[in-house]
Amino acid sequence: MSRTPDLTETDRRGAMRLAAITAVGGATGLGPIGSAHAAEIRGYGKDPDLLKPARYWPPTLTTQEREGLALLADLLLPAQANLAAPSALGFADFIDEWMSAPYPAQQNDARRFRALLAALGSEVGQSGWLGADPVVRAQALLRIEQREPANEALNDLRKLVVGAVYTTPEGMAAIGYRGNEALESFAGPPDEVLARFAAELAKLTSA
Amino acid sequence: MTANDRLLMSEHDVIVVGSGAAGGMAAYALTHAGARVLMLEAGRDYDPLTETPMFNLPSDAPLRGEATPDKEFGFHDATVGGGWEVPGEPYVVASDAKFKWWRARMLGGRTNHWGRLAFRFGPHDFKGYSADGRGVDWPVTYEDMAPWYDRVERLIGVFGAAEGIENSPDSPPGILQPPPKPRAYEAWMQMAMGKLSGIPVVPAHAAVLTRPLGDRPACFYATDCWRGCAIRANFQSTTVLIPPARATGRLTVRTDAMVFKVLRDSRGKAAGVQFVDRKTGAIHQVRARAVVLGASTGETARILLQSADGGLANGSGQVGRNLMDTVAAVVGAEVPQLHDLPPFNDDGVSISHVYAPWWLHREQVAGKLPFARGYHIEFGGGRGMPSIGSMSELVSLSQKRGADLHEDMRRKFGSTVYMGGRGAMLPNAQSFCELDKDVRDRWGLPVLKFHFRWGAEEIAQAAHQRDMFHDVFEAMGGRVLTDRSVPIEDAMGKGGETNHEVGTARMGSSPAVSVLDPWCQTWEVPNLYVVDGAAFATSPDKNPTLTILALAMRAMDHLANRLKRGDA
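Output (structure tokens, whole complex):
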């Protein structure tokens, strides 16, 4: 899907929180998070141990599904010089936990991503998605991008791949996130950044 | 005899219902004045020192910590036992209304995860009716409240600066702690909005320590405040109010105790309360010389409405009425000036370092705006710790694929900014809560039914917010992510969604039109006080918690003096 996060929603913490909360619903196209009644789901509940979370639900993907989705993730976000491929960063475990979760949003994703895998398998023919020649797989992916709803599922999976990769310590470092460490004081942005802002503002005011 | 038996039979001067900003402050003030206090909290015991996930990464949480129906603000959010839904404790929303009610079931209540922005109400906020004939006046002035704001800020620790802005009062010198420097996106917005849009952006006021205070250390600039704080650098009732109240030896805390009724004696005075033990379902009674309700705007109204036919202390008919929240429109944009920044630590205190106070007061007074009350602007975005949600958003902004997608994510990381309006709401006859005639909770108690409607003033103000934010972003060449053509009534948040619900037992100057007198005691039951957001007469643009704390401290000083005189 292509819509941006639902920016009309607000929450009590201000816009920063809103970005984090609504983006998920927007990203996966599953409607507003939290719309399901709490009594209808069997997840980790309203009072889980935040410091030592348990494994609240069993993984349900087959080996073939895990490998197929990891392979697809590597195509969507290939390895870089400074960052390993999703499959090497635990993507199969992540997507297995995601698609096995009992919540309505994740259950819907599971249904759509399984259908996506099936569509890709059909595209590559008898060799199957995992056994297909890389060129054949790439061509199949291009054809899927022309078809709905498979393309919508592919776009949503791409968001999850990116999200999964950049929420690992390796991914955070590669994207340029620095933080989550105790500091004596907060220095603010470097002088070079502030100088750049001043220059950019000067351009705007002189235009 | 069990501990529970001893508790039920022991002598207390005051019963305090609730343990958040209102209940926590009531217990703090009363115990320090020498009163013996029994605090009744509906939720479980909770200790931020041992339960807060400090430094935990998304990968340390199920589903990378993303929101679920169990944890609607994400796995690491401090809220226990609640959220928009509390199992077994439903509420009803009228078919023509949009309203959401956030509840926690934990010691300290919502202070464990609140936003920590702490602005004083200004002189015009307390006397709006006198100025423009809308809403009602508060029965107190800013001058009445200023000493209590001073005391609260000294106690809890608030950073900020003195800016001399109309209706956004400065604190006296020496009270506020130094504000942190703006983060990169905040620095840009401050520079650009001042120059391009003529909107001053100044240091925010927030209840986070930037210097040690007593035995509490300063913030170490990591870990989101809404997880709670194990080092006690931000304000939570559970770290700042309840421990020193306990240290007096005069506070008894009973958790899992959901109060549903205020008891009265033969003279009509409050004699105690009834509560249901949420673990066992057993109903208990406890007695005291005075009762203080700080259960939250909704729960306090519910208790009053359940306590007598037609509602206790409700001769005015105002219990449950005048429900208000905060007017909030949000606009986001991709800001090109924030592209391709070098890596640096921009975590800060996680709360807004800067904000834009209402800057059009004079234009409003001159009648140049189509709404009577103002709003301030809060900011979000930047280079915080990546989440599935924030990264998904970046993918939505990118047309790149494959290897190029990596580079685009790195280049655009931290370049989305959100402007959130926080505006005043006036009371209206269509916004109130009442006991639902049919629905009961798991203990058979009636639940609240909410009615809510934004008034014409609020709708006009929200439209102004949205237009202003679009204009600001477009002036800097930003790519606005919000569809401006959506009808503003649809773009506004639901009532209650900003978690600033107030007004259901308002204070006033006359028992004919208000539930509480200027000291937050009910007009009709003089040893019954209400000290939470229910007491508010109006809902200014400033976030309510600091004023709840100040009102509660002031009211409990009044009660403590009465107790010492034997007058309660």
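The longest strand of chain A covers residues 177-178.
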